[in-house]
Amino acid sequence: MKKLITLVVTYFISCYMVQSQSNYFYSKAVWKDNTNIPINAHGGGILFDKGTYYWYGEHKSENTTTALKGVSCYSSTDLYHWRNRGIALQVSSDPNSDIAKGCILERPKVIYNPTTKKFVMWFHLELRDKGYDSARAGVAVSSSPEGPFTYIESKRVNAGIYPENMPTEDRNYSFSAEQNKEWWTPEWYSAIRRGMFVKRDFKEGQMSRDMTLFVDDNGKAYHIYSSEDNLTLQIAELSDDYLTHSGKYFRIAPGGHNEAPAIMKYNGTYWMITSGCTGWEPNAARLFSASNIYGPWKQYDNPCQGTNKEKTFGGQSTFLLPVEGLKNAYIFMADEWRPKHPIDSRYIWLPVLFKNNIPYIAWIPKWNLDVFTKRN
Ligand code: DGJ
């Protein structure tokens, strides 16, 4: 009898823990694809193209957070059921390639360029065996959303160019070695805010780690990334073909230590959610808004509400997804990282709700898109 009860209880728990073929989102459960295999698309982002959502993410392995396969792609027409479309960008078996198997390839995002009719993928790249020192942005291109994507290049951002919002006085200032030496002192902070690391990296180009992409209503695309040793976010305009940077860029929240940027536009205002910098451990999310994408950006309180809000419910932001066909409906996408068993990292998707036109996120263990139509 005891055995039977255990069996029945286990059955119901596993039904709850596995999201497959159900029209609900269960954050942190195992989400399975059409082949009944857990979806493997972490640090991801979603592109909507011709009636289909394409979800791109890091393909994680059992024992390492480095890239052994590349960027995976899944497609869906309803956001609940996902078809595995394979690896959209493969890492290379050539050890000399920038994207050699074993490199760190994180937070891929894809946008579509209507002029060139190409799908353009950007991602955070760290060359193999160099830890997180390279801090490069990588770019790849494809004629179809599911790939295969062809790797183009990776580099630091906007070498030899200053950010537009760095005053001439700070561009010309000679930051002393003394200010550089000890981190976190008031003098060091002030130097960071003034752009000491922008100057340090001026020749080679700005560091680019956690990142996202955003295409504005006028077709201009932007790359938003953690720069300056993760101390400051930067937003760089992409060229018209989206394949490189235009040279125009701005600093956001200098010295604010933000990672995991995700951005959306709601009623003409840009909203950005980020995390702090605690490696794979969750921390409290941050919220910013701006009426001009280049800023100034205003910071608000933690957008998460309720139990575990200080840890973003155990997750870290990766994307803000506009739901097609619904006005002002956005999904907050986050990752619950499991660095000891990366392949088992989980997804947290929650609806973005608004109070007095300010977005907030509450933990809802089971929900679906009806949430948006039932709003007042
Ligand atoms: C936090 C970042 O958000 C992740 O993408 C990853 O780079 C980890 N740090 C590595 O510690």
Structure notes:
The strands form seven sheets. A four-stranded antiparallel sheet has the order 3-4-5-6, with no helix packed on it. A four-stranded antiparallel sheet has the order 7-8-9-10, with no helix packed on it. With 376 residues, the chain is mainly beta. The model is unreliable at 6-17 (pLDDT under 50). It contains six helices and 24 strands. A hairpin with a 6-residue loop joins strand 5 (70-76) and strand 6. Helix content is 12%, strand content 39%. It has helices at residues 2-17, 168-172, 177-181, 186-194, 196-200, 370-373; strands at residues 18-19, 30-31, 42-49, 52-58, 70-76, 83-90, 104-113, 118-126, 136-142, 150-155, 211-215, 221-227, 232-238, 245-252, 259-266, 269-275, 286-290, 298-300, 304-305, 316-322, 330-336, 346-351, 353-355, 358-362. It has a domain at 30-155: Glycosyl hydrolase domain, family 43 (Tachylectin-2, Chain A), CATH 2.115.10. The chain binds (2R,3S,4R,5S)-2-(hydroxymethyl)piperidine-3,4,5-triol. (2R,3S,4R,5S)-2-(hydroxymethyl)piperidine-3,4,5-triol binds at residues 43, 106-107, 210, 259-260, 279-280, 316.
